[in-house]
Structure prediction request, 707 residues.
Amino acid sequence: MLDLYGEDRCAIKIHPEQRQTGTTGQEDMLSTNQTDRTEAAACHARLCAELHRHNRLYHVLDRPEISDAEYDRLFRELVELENAWPELTTPDSPSQKVGAAPAEKFSPVPHAVPMLSLKNVKSAEEFLDFDTSIRKNFLAREDAIDYVCEMKLDGVAVELTYKQGILTVASTRGDGSTGEDITENIRTLASVPPTLAPPFPPLLDVRGEVYIDLKDFQQLNRDQEDAGERSFANPRNAAAGSLRQLNSAVTARRSLKIFCYGTGRWQNGRHHSHLESLQQLANMGLRVNLEETVSVRGAEGVLDHYRKLLTRRDALPFEIDGMVVKVNTLDLQQELGTLSRTPRWAVAFKFPPRQEETVLEGIGLQVGRTGAITPVAHLKPVNVSGVTVSRASLHNWDEIARLDIRVGDHVVVERAGDVIPDVVKVLVERRTGTEQPIAIPTVCPECAGPVRKAETEVIPRCTNSHCPAQTIERIKHFVSRNAMDIDGLGEKQILQLIALGKVKTVADLYRLDKEDLFAMERMGEVLAEKLLQSIAQSKSRPLSRLLFGLGIRHVGIHTAKILAKRFTSLGALAQADADSLIKIHEIGGKVAESLADFFADPVQGQLLEQLREQGVNPTEEAVVQQNGLLTGKILVITGALEQMSRKEAEDLVERLGGRAAGSVSKKTDYLVAGPGAGSKLDKAQKLGVSILSEEDFLQMTQRGEDA
Ligand code: IVH
Prediction:
């Protein structure tokens, strides 16, 4: 018998006979089991509500509360329950949908051909069953099938519609029949061509997965944390969150990529195989993962490739959660057909989850440069698909409360790529009663200083600005790669300099001389010389790096660049009032407030003064792409643009190092003229300025963006 339970364990037993046959012909048993039926209905309602909620958390809010495995389990319970009591299946049951309904803020886009999902298989046996079933039950053949194996990237499924070779609409999968309009955001991806290379069909729907490379994901999370924003739990959420931005400029910064793996409508298309159609997509300039797409013969070929791919999983630049196996011949695909949610001709051959059970042995406390005290899980070491894990991130204190995690608990940890593992679940049922709840610290674990937690915040902070842990972290941040980039000052060296009493603030770094350095371990003439040189060189870093390096709350590297570009000196920024700050694109109230706090703080004022005395007072020139495709060029944009707004076109020019001017003169290098261009076009023609159509401009800038 199978135990089914929703949120609060609504236990309901399904009899094996019922599960296999459903209710038909089981009248006797059903009438005697009327109570079971009522319980089943209640359980069904609860499971539906739970799954709807998790669908929304996952697909709409990008904030899943449970792991994929846990979701799968709930989903399977629902399907089993509906198999046993088919009359409980309602049209809006989560079992009848592929994903979640589209978010309200984006307009709906119907998919002309439904975007299906894939049935999963999790073992060689299950794959062999799939292969046998389609050969014997549906195709009535003994001989091996030609399959295509593709990587199953863990990202977001999208559809791109090209009309006459021009990208007109891009949408998410949504519930499979209707998705969300994300055209503007998709246009910011360098790997999505705005136009196709001929020959192309008059109408083409391309499907693919938008994803983020692991190194970009990690950088994004560091930037999010630096800017005081929520970090993403995994690359999939980062990709989804980045695509579903109302401001496409945000998407543009997120290094998203696409791999195309299929099609919807393909007008006048005639091919024989799936692989051939992928090759044609690549010929049109679409990004297809052809190097990793192989055609194999029969189930043996698939299993062989699966084993090979599994060994390479950790070395890939992106996260894959399995392999997609597709019947290659399109005639056979058609013969096999599709079910309501999934095709019969393809299957997702999943990799084992990177999840393991272990025990939470303790909680470590880390004090950051702003005094933030964050918890780290100390785990009984466990091997998670080849890597020993003994530390895991718990993100914040809310997470501890949400998971109700206690020292001594059995927990499930999950690893995605080489990202720090997460504790995703507490196995409450394994508690013995000896587990210890975790209290938010009331004194700093490093300096025993007072800890304060603002009501609106989830993070407790050490308020002692002389806390040694904060000092170390502040200096580490100041010298880091994206900040002042001082080589040769790692954590060890910083610790020594603090212990020797030579450094208390970042300004002290600029007062160091050779004698001071000689007091450090293993520090000879050559190393000391080099270190002093790299400290001196850092004085000429641009203002944005200093601003970032000062560790002002909510000022990540991107915000620092915007501020530096706008104010060009620290003095000017310090004078800026909140109103003028908020008016700047992408600067909000939080940043304005935190800058005001920073400049009003006498300790920081003294620090800035000391830095100035040491010659650290950089300025910033307008930040543009050095050696960009349009460096030094002046462009004027006129008329109506069809594929992007005027503002987007101007931003693009500036990103590539050019300047977007308002009027045409002899100095103008290019005029981009859309339909309806008037006097500016006449003037440009008279002056012999090169004239570009929107299409020419897009093609030209595409090259620059790819560079
Ligand atoms: S084919 C009918 N190919 O996996 C074919 N999907 O549950 C449907 N995915 O929604 C998709 N890599 O988001 C296909 N090479 C690949 C894929 C892939 C990732 C995702 C996609 C899809 C989900 C299937």
The first strand starts at residue 2 and ends at 4. The CA atoms of residues 139 and 336 lie 7 Å apart.
